[in-house]
Design goal:
The protein is of the alpha/beta class and 346 residues long. The protein has helices at residues 8-15, 48-61, 109-115, 120-131, 146-154, 197-204, 221-229, 248-258, 263-273, 323-330, and strands at residues 19-26, 29-34, 39-41, 72-77, 81-86, 96-101, 136-140, 163-167, 179-183, 211-217, 237-241, 276-282, 289-300, 303-313, 316-319. It is 28% helix and 28% strand.
Length: 346
């Protein structure tokens, strides 16, 4: 991040181990989020005018315009950073800056198990999804750990397979030896040069992919993605914002409407293209993120529904109504009841 045109106190926060977000709400209201949760930091970045100048300078560094005529910007910056900035009068209390620190090195599934984010039983289930070349989505709220989990799962894909990874910003850090990336580009200050995710999905189909991965389904590109997954690209995946697996069908329908698809068409396409949803959530009042459920996507009449296949509790994995559906595809075995181990010596 040495190339970033930012003051030293801000750079120190952005470089700190485990930090995923830095939020500037005002001169003395700087927060960070990461392994320890959301915390307010004793950092002063100058007055409101200096923060505005910082935001304008960083936007320009990313090739974007930020001023009274264009008071909000979302831009990629050097060093693996993404900045969202909003100026008054849109931001009524003063300039607001939100930095997302993109992970440079992904965590392996083994590391996620060691950290407690995933149990050994859940690890076996989601490994089965990848090995069986099942198409799936990772769902969850903002900051729940969708990208981290997806990156870890890509590490399970065989080295002989070619992955084409499509993202709005390069967030997924995977060590897979044959993963090529396509990154969306926003329009420049003159409103030209944009290349969105929809266009990138179309390009990916011409690149001989074994698996197509969309970092986040958030717009009309869902039409191209569902079409791609129905043309033989098994084992493809992506992430989607949703508060629970049961919300995923409605989310897909909403995104499909942006592409001119009606609800029944989206349901039929998704039923043929996607088999499962892996949901991740953040524990209430804790920075801990974990897998909470795996659901199967099924067509019920003209409606797409997500039915629980495996629910994750503190006691282990509990099979759900759709367990047999996914167990047949992924060769799952029924989870064994968790038995208490011997009492430790004190």
């Amino acid at each position: 991040m040495s190339e970033l045109a930012a003051p030293a106190p801000l750079l120190a926060l952005l470089r700190a181990e485990g930090v995923s977000d830095v939020l500037v709400n005002g001169p003395d209201a700087v927060w960070v989020d990461g392994l320890e949760g959301l915390r307010r930091m004793a950092v002063h970045l100058g007055d409101a005018n200096q923060i505005r100048a910082l935001a304008t300078r960083l936007a320009a560094q990313g090739g974007q315009r930020l001023d009274d005529a264009c008071p909000a910007v979302d831009v990629n910056l050097p060093g693996g950073l993404r900045l969202h900035a909003v100026l008054p009068p849109i931001a009524s209390g003063g300039p607001l800056l939100s930095f997302r620190v993109l992970r440079r090195q992904g965590l392996s599934l083994e590391r996620l198990v060691q950290s407690g984010a995933i149990s050994h039983e859940v690890s076996e289930l989601i490994t089965g999804l990848v090995k069986a070349r099942v198409n799936f989505l990772v769902s969850g709220a903002t900051g729940a750990g969708k990208t981290t989990l997806l990156a870890a799962l890509l590490g399970l894909v065989g080295a002989e397979e070619r992955i084409v990874l499509i993202e709005e910003a390069a967030e997924i850090a995977t060590a897979h030896p044959h993963c090529v990336r396509l990154e969306a580009r926003t329009a420049n200050s003159e409103g030209k040069g944009a290349f969105d995710l929809t266009s990138l999905v179309r390009q990916a189909l011409r690149m001989r992919p074994d698996r197509i991965v969309v970092g986040e389904c958030r717009g009309a590109e869902v039409r191209e993605l569902l079409t791609a997954l129905n043309t033989g690209h098994e084992g493809s995946c992506g992430t989607i914002h949703a508060n629970s697996p049961t919300d995923v069908p409605a989310r897909l329908a909403a995104l499909g409407s942006l592409a001119g698809l009606d609800r029944a068409t989206v349901a039929a396409q998704a039923d043929a293209a996607l088999a499962a949803v892996v949901h991740v959530a953040r524990d209430r009042g804790s920075p801990r993120r974990r897998v909470t459920e795996i659901a199967a996507l099924e067509l019920c009449g003209d409606d797409l529904v997500a039915r629980p296949a495996a629910s994750v509790t503190d006691d282990g994995v509990a099979p759900g109504p759709s367990w047999n559906r996914l167990a047949h595809l992924c060769r799952w075995r029924l989870p064994q009841p968790t038995r208490p181990g011997p009492e430790p010596d004190l």
